[in-house]
Design brief:
Elements: H1 7-18, H2 25-33, H3 36-39, H4 44-51, H5 53-61, H6 70-80, H7 86-105, H8 113-129, H9 135-150
Length: 152
């Protein structure tokens, strides 16, 4: 069963609203749009035209450089985590929380245990290096990661 695309960005935004109590509209919009440039033909300029400069800046901060290989992109997420603005760090943390929860409870059928473990390990490294960590989201993330490893 393939989860509809919209479920993920809605989940990331809802976590920010419900758990981190984010009320900044630009951060919420960026959460809804965070994968748009990577996953569609949408350009950052279009996001800026429709949603404003701040939303585009947040989306840009959390968008991988497609000119790099996947391993390089993943390494850059770790390296650049400490440079994120607070808004982008919130989106990134919520995204990682959502994704790790998904990998732990409903992993892609093609992902074996080794791939799931590697994803959780890498996500934790990204989150641990973030410039800003919302305490509630970080506590949920840490609890989820601990629970994941306890089940192995």
């Amino acid at each position: 069963y393939q989860t509809p695309y919209i479920v993920h960005p809605l989940g990331v935004a809802n976590q920010l609203i419900d758990h981190a109590r984010v009320r900044d509209v630009a951060i919420i919009q960026a959460a809804l749009l965070h994968d748009t440039v990577e996953d569609t033909n949408t350009r950052l300029e279009e996001i800026e035209e429709r949603f404003g400069e701040q939303v585009a800046l947040y989306v840009d901060e959390v968008t991988d450089d497609k000119s790099l290989s996947r391993p390089e992109q993943k390494q850059m997420q770790i390296v650049h985590a400490s440079e994120k603005t607070e808004g982008a760090a919130l989106v990134k943390l919520s995204d990682k929380l959502y994704n790790v929860r998904d990998v732990a409870t409903n992993p892609p059928p093609s992902w074996d245990r080794e791939r799931r473990d590697e994803y959780v390990r890498w996500s934790a490294e990204v989150v641990d290096n973030l410039s800003y960590q919302d305490p509630k989201l970080k506590a949920q993330f840490d609890k989820l990661v601990t629970s994941y490893w306890d089940k192995t």
